[in-house]
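Q: Structure tokens for this one, please.
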Amino acid sequence: MKKYTKSVKASEVDRKWVVVDAKDLVLGRVATEVASHLRGKRNPLFTPNVDTGDFVIIINADKVRLTGRKWKQKTYYRYTGYIGGLRETTAEKLREKRPEDLIRFAVKGMLPKNRLGTLMLKKLKVYAGENHPHDAQQPKQITL
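A: Here is the predicted structure, written as tokens:
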């Protein structure tokens, strides 16, 4: 009798919806757990070359914590595409303008850098406040 490892196809994956409340949680700790859920590492049928992860909704992104002096020292860079167009902003300014991007950038850095990682990032929904429009999916609240 041969034993073999089960390799899952994308059509066989049963995706769930989970909600994470990021209020008073450290950014990096939240990002690692969320990346693990998006990737599907907690799924017993995890297959590295198939997106087996769940949909993740993060609420209260504006209330996430950073340790030490990272609010002033952590910088985010973007390039406009023009000569001399490198722009930088601190985590504090980014929280004021777009608090959702703090979590989105942290999670993106923990996912694979290929087409599969892009598909996984599309399953991440981040909201600054308490409300989200995904009640119809009946998401399950998880604590980190």
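A few notes: Residues 58 and 126 are 5 Å apart (CA to CA). The chain has one domain: 14-142.
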